[in-house]
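Q: Give me the 3D complex with alpha-D-glucopyranose.
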Amino acid sequence: MARDHWFKDAKYGLFIHWGIYSMLGGVYKGEKIPYGAEWIMKNAEIPLQEYRKLAETFNPVDFDAEDIVGKAKKWGMKYIVFTAKHHDGFAMYHSEVSDYNIMNTPFQRDPLKELAEECRKQGIILGIYYSQMQDWEDENGWGNEWDFKPDKEKDFEKYFYNKVKPQVKELLTNYGEVGIMWFDTPYVMPVQLCEELKAYTKSLQPDCLVNGRIGYKLGDYRQMSDNEIPVLSFPGDWETPMTLNDTWGYSRVDHNWKSAADVLYKLVDVVGKGGNLLLNIGPDEKGKVPEGSCKVLDEAGRWLDLNGESIYKCNLNMDFQYEISWGRVTGNDRKMFLHVFKYPEFPYEILITGLKTKIKKVTILDNCEELQFFQSYEPARDEYRFRVLLPKNGKLDKDMVLCAEYEGEIEIQKLE
Ligand code: GLC
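A: Here is the predicted complex, encoded as structure tokens.
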């Protein structure tokens, strides 16, 4: 991907998991069903005939695309990925290919269309999630072995040509420009079909990215595992999808929200290692975004308003060889940003070992206060040290960002 590609600059996106599973909210017959609430049909082995009935009363009248897109912007996100069809097989858009879609509910509105229009209006990129192998409604889709035959006896190609490709065509023709086709759980899909699906996507929209879960490293970027951040900086393009509590789909029993400080730490960690964070919300059965998520994301958004320069377009991987105990570092081609998550005790200084680059000036990013700093090289030990003195007795409730302007290029000493 080119260095100035929108995906590389964006850093932070909003994932939206929303479907008829949201009506159950992780609870079936009075029992909390473990794991992702969007997996409830499979994890509780709900018969298709019964699960289908959810659609008959699905009427999420509180869904408001203008509000959600506005929130994403306020939260500092640069793109949105919406679940058009999750593993349960239900299309959350107007599909001519399958009746099992949101137009055949009392709601009779196409949320994807509404989101696409709002994204265009409000200037945010739209991505579409599509589960290409699992489909618990289709007798030949993968995953539903309680209503249909075992997976290995299914005619997967039939499903692929009758449902997947035609639906992908709808998604890439009826909703304007799509920034990412976000595929998921390719499992044992044959490589030729993955290649075909990728080529098909590109033939419909050449600029649309395909994520790593198309399978076989065919994606335009690497998809990290759910909630996983690599330990080391990773040189290619990548993205970590992350939950805000412990589920993707709405759960009425999971209130284990991450704090804003934690979200920001994870975002900074991802950005310093060269990736993007795709953070999830799960609207409820009425289409409302849970208060708990709004609170956290509002707070993180306020921080991003003041400190966004240290996140967006920060495309340098910071390959320091020592773990930085007080925080993380991000950077662009003129500035390095030192994110202090743990305020140092006396003598109130933070240290980076192994930076060869000459620093010109260090300031606190959100108030421009200039700070004293020292750089030294000890030949006998072959050690570069860069120290910054922080204000005495400062304290943090979140990330405090220092901006270090530098000369030339970032050069980090490799340990030998
Ligand atoms: C998964 C899950 C799923 C969720 C997704 C998000 O692999 O199957 O429910 O949509 O990852 O990354």
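A quick observation: The longest helix spans residues 156-173.
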